[in-house]
## 1
Amino acid sequence: MPGIPPTRFVYLGPEGTFAEQALRTIPAAERGSRTPARSVPEALDAVRHDDADAALVPLENSIGGAVGVTFDEIVDGAPLMIAREVVLPVEFVLAARPGRSLTEIRTVAAHPQASTQCRGWLREQLPNATVVDVLSNGAAAAAAAAGEQDAAICAPIGVTRQRLAVLAEKIADHGDAVTRFVLVTRPSSPPPPTGDDVTSLAVFIAHDRVGALLAVLMELAVRGVNLTRIESRPTGEALGRYVFFLDCTGHVADDRVGEALRGLRRICADVRFLGSYPRHRWGVAPHERPVPAPPGLSDADYADATAWLARLRAGELS
Amino acid sequence: MPGIPPTRFVYLGPEGTFAEQALRTIPAAERGSRTPARSVPEALDAVRHDDADAALVPLENSIGGAVGVTFDEIVDGAPLMIAREVVLPVEFVLAARPGRSLTEIRTVAAHPQASTQCRGWLREQLPNATVVDVLSNGAAAAAAAAGEQDAAICAPIGVTRQRLAVLAEKIADHGDAVTRFVLVTRPSSPPPPTGDDVTSLAVFIAHDRVGALLAVLMELAVRGVNLTRIESRPTGEALGRYVFFLDCTGHVADDRVGEALRGLRRICADVRFLGSYPRHRWGVAPHERPVPAPPGLSDADYADATAWLARLRAGELS
Amino acid sequence: MPGIPPTRFVYLGPEGTFAEQALRTIPAAERGSRTPARSVPEALDAVRHDDADAALVPLENSIGGAVGVTFDEIVDGAPLMIAREVVLPVEFVLAARPGRSLTEIRTVAAHPQASTQCRGWLREQLPNATVVDVLSNGAAAAAAAAGEQDAAICAPIGVTRQRLAVLAEKIADHGDAVTRFVLVTRPSSPPPPTGDDVTSLAVFIAHDRVGALLAVLMELAVRGVNLTRIESRPTGEALGRYVFFLDCTGHVADDRVGEALRGLRRICADVRFLGSYPRHRWGVAPHERPVPAPPGLSDADYADATAWLARLRAGELS
Amino acid sequence: MPGIPPTRFVYLGPEGTFAEQALRTIPAAERGSRTPARSVPEALDAVRHDDADAALVPLENSIGGAVGVTFDEIVDGAPLMIAREVVLPVEFVLAARPGRSLTEIRTVAAHPQASTQCRGWLREQLPNATVVDVLSNGAAAAAAAAGEQDAAICAPIGVTRQRLAVLAEKIADHGDAVTRFVLVTRPSSPPPPTGDDVTSLAVFIAHDRVGALLAVLMELAVRGVNLTRIESRPTGEALGRYVFFLDCTGHVADDRVGEALRGLRRICADVRFLGSYPRHRWGVAPHERPVPAPPGLSDADYADATAWLARLRAGELS
């Protein structure tokens, strides 16, 4: 973030979940304060009310339960901005108090979504164990540490926090799942473009236009702006409009993204800009992955076309 | 559903939640057996393994926590089919044991997402009460009935089941929210077209095609097929493809939907047909809302064009 | 035209044709010199070599024989600009020396395309007359005046020039045909926008791009720019490219046309701007036909979107 | 052509022009009768009235003067069909009576468009010669043969017919120009597909639809049908509609072309099918250029998609 870097961070709690683990990959958060929030709205409100400088909340995938509404909550209320994304592999572990072995495990504390994602592993490795639902991955680790249950399905950070021992690593049935978190701040200038950025938008479309989404995508396609994510959100029919959350390639400072945004502004009932920030690729540093603009769509191409148009308007054909 | 109607139903449990309430709006389910499942995957697996005939699971909105992955789970494994949708208004109530008054309430049991959706009401009406997280709306009602907490935020069905009294109705901050559930069965012939149907699809797109989503939407738009919902789902980058879940207007038996489906089949890496079923409009019976096909796109228009083409191929111009 | 108005005009000759008639509808031409040229290229070369200030040549319809190549000739060579269009109804007359009556006519001088366009009338009214081909409508009138043939099919201006008498008016079989002429000058600032303008372009597309024309039309459609004319021109296959001549609604000074032009510049192998000029509607004065910009596409809408984008880039969300 | 091959041919006359030369490349015409017509309408009417079986008329480029209206004339009246195309390089020669040398030439007979296309060569090689306009390339050759002028610009066939000698070959300024002729018959079954065919259409669009041409192109693009030629034709404004002449890749018997045609039939005010016939590539035999259908758009792909749709409708998901 430009200007003063944030020092007071909130994240979707409780402690010991993937959200905390994601937050701690950010150097400024490692140095600053880190406070868990009970819910995504609570985390975002803390930023809105200046009780915190930035909130780390999940955006995609189902770990932690609160995803899905995050975009709704960002849009609903005083403006907020996404300043950064963190993509984290979902690596569930089975953990227990030190000294326990896998064969002794009779009960496993787990968030329902965590046990669901590991159900193949549980069926094979612990066919006789009972899964006990708890409210979060952090609570699962705490229950194992307190001896309430024999073991826990939790995030690696829960193991560290609760001084547990790992009985089995990477027990999720789909080994390549990831969760995507975003760091949300009050509005300010977006971070500078890196050449591989994401721009997030909320686009509102009037109810009665046939092909309205097609028109939105054409505005993007004509400028070579790709979508990496799209989600329509249900709104009450009485409201008579649709909202789409879009993640696009490129940065608001890029000419082609700017022109696409202006186009959406002109044709849509409303457009909310939610931020431009570096794309996070797991294990790939930004400087290792220069992503050239598509042919004809670089800032230089835009500058050339603008200069050419100025010549035409001045009567200088060539 | 054509053929033998289902008699054994599962639903996302526990008892006393919106899912059970939605299921009981279906006459056949009212007459048949109704078994709660611990998770969406468990509910779907019961159908896949013929332990049940149909599963009622949430598809949109966040009540109950398990939404969002429902489509993933339908697609992942032996084929299933959506045979029906049920759209339910989200009507949270504050309930307590009979005889209690609002002023006495010091603790409120609630699923975290339920308390989040009612946080404005809680702040105004019960500013000093403590919210205690529980694992479901059904568990909240049970906790109030058992006297563990003073009151519960729950669904109307939880009040009935636990013989509670309603202290306040419609306490959600957004009064017009709805949850959409679907009834999932093993594959069979879709229910007949009603003139106002939804067709659900999972569309897989190869990673490296620019504008691939635009191409998908053009296949639909050219046949006058509208989208009512779209969601991209994250896949591991290693997989190198994107999946989109689409809800379209129309029925697989309609010529225009059939032609659009054939077009998607030809251009996409994969297409999974997930069902065609009557659109559920809350409070509107199907016969009250005839929806004419767009100009040029009725089955009669298709028949006319097909006959014309046959004449051309036979050398009969006119 | 801004700057010094043209005083030396050439037109596709010979004298006494529709081209001269069209030229004389322009007040400046009525006051200036008017010289016939033997061909469209000769007329354009006179402007290119500064032997004339402006050339009036046909662009559409087939009267006079030279149409069709006009755009080719404008594009091929030093830049020229279309400064004005003149649309003229095609009103062929049958004319003869004064005193002749229709029943006496045995031979009719006519350009082959003129007699073709009047063949229904000739069959009915002069079934026994012989049509004698001549090289132009002007030559037909001259042949009748010289007594070489009994009558001529010609333009009204040919009647005046050769002091003939009209035997029959409006004898073309299609009464509503028009010919479109353009006034071509050396490059200068286009005439100011009137709110109902035409912009002419030549767009070159690389051979191997599938859907390239669709991409061109999308650039226009996204900015609400309509096409009123399109023509692909054959190029040798060895050249490996296609050229399209487009007439679009709007003026190069309009924001939406400017943005569309910049888009074409970026995606096409080459774009030649050929002029922006008031649309000529026969019998309708410009001030009687205000044409509002499509919703969201006025210059004010563009200004609003540009200001909004500047706010986003500055971090001012609202 | 299927059925009885044509034996009576007409062509745009007079004798000794490129049209006759093009006709004689067709074996059946070499064996049958060949009659010149005074104009394109006259040639087409001969076929309509069964005075001839087939008419060879120019469609593109400007040699002979009558092009451009050919499509209009095909559409206007009883249905006709394009059964074949012939593409001929434009090879103008300078010819004179045997024994003459270039240095003796003082006058050159030429059709105005022919002399226009050779004006660079004339300026360099015969700067002092006078060009005398005549009505056709055939008339030019005849004038040279009769000794009325010293030489003629004409087609190679004019040299043969009039027993002239060639003084200079390939004198057109643009060496790679071609003229495209079509052979027009009464309606019958189109010739069988070769894998590299052209389909010609006239598409009528209602006046008041914004983006109507874009909709037409989308119908084609979605089925992978490319355009090789497009031309809008002026219609009187009173008619309130536009007509576009399109040449598309593929054959009416191809599934993808058939589906695109049916789509156009459904959305356009009117569609006139004008024929499917092998694409003529100069100097390339059809069997040397197999052109595979685009991915997903072969007849086999269509058959696969149709079978898949049938399975879906029967409730067989997989």
## 2
Amino acid sequence: MNAELPLAQGWMNAARTPFDAEALFNPRGIAVIGASANLSRIGGQPIRALLDAGYAGHIHPVNPKYTEIAGLRCHRQVADIEGPCDLAIIAIPAALVPESITACGRAGIRFAIVLSGGFREAGEAGKTIEARLLAAAREAGVRVIGPNCQGLISTSSRVFAVFGAISHETRMQPGAISMVFQSGGFGFAIMTLCDALGIRFRHCVSIGNEADITTPELVAALALDTGTRAIFLYLEGVRDGRALIAAAHGALAAGKPVIVWKGGKTEAGNRAAASHTANMTGQYDLYRAAFRQAGMIEARSVDEIADLFTVLSSGRPIAGGNMAALAISGGAGVVFADAAIAHGARLPAFTDQTLEKLRAVLPAFASTANPVDITADIFNDISRFTAALEIVLADPNIDQLAILLASLPGKLALEAANAIATAQEQSAKPIVLAWSARRARATEAYERLETALIPILPSPERVGAAAATLARHADAARFALPNLVRASEHGAARAIHRGRRTLNEIDAKRLLGRFGIPVTNDAIFAAAGDSADCENLSYPVVAKIVSADIPHKSDVGGVITNLPSLEALRRGIGEMMAAVQRNAPAAHIDGVLVSEMVTDGTEAIVGVVNDAVFGPTVALGLGGIFTEILRDITYRVAPFTIEVAHAMIIELRAHKLLTDGARGIAPRDTEALANTLVRVSEMAWRLRDSLVELDINPLFIRPAGKGVIAADCLITLNGEMAPP
Amino acid sequence: MNAELPLAQGWMNAARTPFDAEALFNPRGIAVIGASANLSRIGGQPIRALLDAGYAGHIHPVNPKYTEIAGLRCHRQVADIEGPCDLAIIAIPAALVPESITACGRAGIRFAIVLSGGFREAGEAGKTIEARLLAAAREAGVRVIGPNCQGLISTSSRVFAVFGAISHETRMQPGAISMVFQSGGFGFAIMTLCDALGIRFRHCVSIGNEADITTPELVAALALDTGTRAIFLYLEGVRDGRALIAAAHGALAAGKPVIVWKGGKTEAGNRAAASHTANMTGQYDLYRAAFRQAGMIEARSVDEIADLFTVLSSGRPIAGGNMAALAISGGAGVVFADAAIAHGARLPAFTDQTLEKLRAVLPAFASTANPVDITADIFNDISRFTAALEIVLADPNIDQLAILLASLPGKLALEAANAIATAQEQSAKPIVLAWSARRARATEAYERLETALIPILPSPERVGAAAATLARHADAARFALPNLVRASEHGAARAIHRGRRTLNEIDAKRLLGRFGIPVTNDAIFAAAGDSADCENLSYPVVAKIVSADIPHKSDVGGVITNLPSLEALRRGIGEMMAAVQRNAPAAHIDGVLVSEMVTDGTEAIVGVVNDAVFGPTVALGLGGIFTEILRDITYRVAPFTIEVAHAMIIELRAHKLLTDGARGIAPRDTEALANTLVRVSEMAWRLRDSLVELDINPLFIRPAGKGVIAADCLITLNGEMAPP
């Protein structure tokens, strides 16, 4: 949990050049500082693990108490190490770590993994030590993982720089999936579970307190790592959300899916803000927006992750979302279809040619539509299965094929496996299997399929979910890449949320206008009878009190709507002034704003939250009930393109209200809405150092072709800034 | 898939007395009709399986071709069997099955499992044979499972009356979970997967075409079976939804959770109906309502099912939803909390006393709040873990405890296991474990925990989800039991959906009034200037054309709202008549209905669908956008109690709009709404033989204390019924 670290530190890290991952993941030598001769202690476990795993470089235990540990020469101090040494594992009391880092730097060691606890997580004294650690690292030119972490495993170079249960798992073989965990215990438990399922990993890092190297930095490094094919993150929070987005984009550009499990979804949002938008926005809302914008796949269970890994392990490119299924049980086909469709895939109809061919080879009681059910007939004649497999795979409407074999055992399973492996060799379309035979009953079949790199999951709903999720991701990735989120060299945001200054409505609308956001036709009502401006308005109008001291005007009687004439306006304003005086006697009144009423608009709220982690982020919801009761709100980190704005609109549960119209209401001008969202996002980005929060409420969305119009606006700026 | 069977048949079955399950699941002897000497053929597999499984009764192969099969005497015909025989397994061509059933009856065999295919699923000829089969069974007094099924396994009596992959799994040991599958291949694959996880089963039945014995009947039998502790159904559809609800209620009353996986969720609804309600209702909506009303747990993956089974296998009563977690990894605690809360559990704060005690035993960097994170400190001193475990378990705010051990291996794991087993012996509160150590690294610890019947799942989110789901179920069960759904001895519904007759608005409102449902104050406008009735109305009023030929009045200009006076009414009606004449020249006009307008009401739609499977079912949604765009609709099978009506209201996503008020709108009269829902449900039930569909649209829900009022109503009745 990194919430307490000062923000500036995260930004600095984000701006550093990528580190030399080769020296970290494939070090020429490893020092173990605080080495213990008792190999079951924290200072001994990494030594045992490195030896067991077959690490080929030199291991250099460092501890003045010993001259030898586990047959290795033990050094009094780091300076005594001879030969190349790129990495130090540090397991000494916290207070001694900073000077140990300094010694590492002097000895030419470029990376340190600090396993020791007792830093930030242990209170004020620990925080001070962590700050000293960071200063020592910067000074010495040493990059640090941790402190308070469980270490790092790099299976390809046999680096098992870890303690705990995972230090015993030294037989794990190399794979192409790399992982970063903000909880070592949980992360390495995921690794253990997945390894037992035959999934193989490359670099796995428990990141600890992130005093120096951060999660986004590691993701960026893994994106560049040629041996990494996919990246998994267990994430509780980052300090610089834009650095995370940028790193994930890098991975995407390199064709590497990033799977993320966000822990702490249910944490309560606790903003204290004037705007509706800020009050309704939880931290997790912003993470989800960021994941979408960066094309990251969100997962929420170990099984889901393991299934994605399994399908990715085939090494085939991710296929499209047009899926077919070939089942030997009707139920399996039904369940597959439910899951695949729920995860965004399609089960298209086969061509007439395919159907005709299927009818020719399958028995009359088989179902030839997609999903195909060849039934238990497979027990009678496997050749029909083989024929159907080839026919379905060849259908031009189909991107990928799921074969659902229930628990088919023995000789039949082997024949099916041979047919599948042969078909896969001859087709570019990926095949995924749902199959739950006990291994002992179908050993040869399993081996045949594993050699052919055909992914096998135990049940049809898991095949449907995993294959569909990856297909959807491929679309999301294509969308995300050209719609890169801009990062700042200074991190996400610098708006200081102290000394707020709320603009009055006149100034707020002027500011909107400057960014090309259409506002209502307004006039100022001058009390001295001289209301020429108001004579030129189209009635009916709405009158609103103007005061920076009154953020919610209607609460104090400061709004009167539907005034049909200048006379009614005059009368209304008199009553309004009396009410405001009664309800907010201390407020400084700047005047009364009179606006033409919009009568053909659907109400929306467009807001900006300037978040400490993600910087300026734009929110969109429809009026009142939709945001307040249904919480139907969508977010994107600013600034963004028109494509992203349209994606936001479509993401609203109520979007059909805008696009299709409803109950005799014509479709709304979503083109203009998208344009305005882009402008608000540009405005939020340009003003990121001064804008604290913004609400356009309501923004009226008029019928198609008639545009949108901001009828009211609340803007709070950093108090130290000059008025815009 | 049972969609094609005539409805009447399902109803008859529902009305039959429960069958003698003992003879089915624990038969004294088993005949195998169509026995094959080749034990790998369908007629041979059950013989091999029964022998391998150690079935203790007599096996009687029947086939005139042989005198002996697998060392058993083979009979020429069923009549030749000597000694008691309760069950026949039939694997002969479809056309021969009916007479074989007759022979079984003569021989005193009471149950037949028909494995053969070639019946309803194979087209028209097969349907005829299936009808003959049923007639033969009724005549002979034989109850039949199948045809076209994979058979039945009863582990307690070693009955493996099955073919296919599952016929090899004869070492499966008895447990307390029974299952019914509407897909044998998929169902037995679930059984295989779960058995590999250590879950044990009792009676598992592939139900096939359900020509005779239906899924609800089996559920009813399993509810009465003392050895069954929980029931799982893989369901694609039933013919009599009320029989299913009644059977599930029976299980609930016996304290047995019913878990259901509904396959075919994404099937498109294709009603062609006049009412909004019917057009918006898919079959799955009604199943979900029924599951809720019967207190059934809906599952959608094998893992979810397996996890529920694992937790249920402890044999402890299901605990409440106040959960605590004790983790050795922060991430595990976070992930557990996310999942538990998402599934409806709570993580309450500990008492001050608990916190004080925890602080005394745990190190400073541990987190003592719920979820507790004792950190990797467990590697230093396990006694602190043990102490914390006892302290947390004793907290009075806590119903159950999850312990999250990551992959803790070896000696530490054994010490932890001992502590957990001891604590569980001394506490009535259930303990559930998330633990992913490889078995080989912690064999003794696993054995210790398994002996103590402590459920172990591999990851914390699965523990959170399963324990919370069961806790929520316990609440749902308490609610469902006193709110039993009424079943009819004649099944769900008999309204014939041919020969429809739509009532005009006057008659429809009269009918509502007769059932105590408040309607608007109305008058008939008499064209001849004599509009005395209209003079007594409170204006403004709305005028609506009355014609049974015009179901959607506003589409033809047949509605004018907001008429402020009698003069305006007269004028408006003139215009309306012209518009209607233009747009619907053929319609027979009964007159013009004039209703007082409701100005302080929130619009709702209350509708009734008279479904072929579930009978009359009531729908509730809020006006226009909420139902049409957001599909925020809730359903309950009629009739129901006021508690159920309140549950419907709360289930709407937008319910806060009614209960809390919003945007200056006062809370609505949900008490009156609930009352009206009950009355509509009573009306729907009373008229179930004539009511085809009903829409009250809008029903205005007025401010609290002011009631509700039906402003318009569409009712379609069976054409052959006399007007109500």
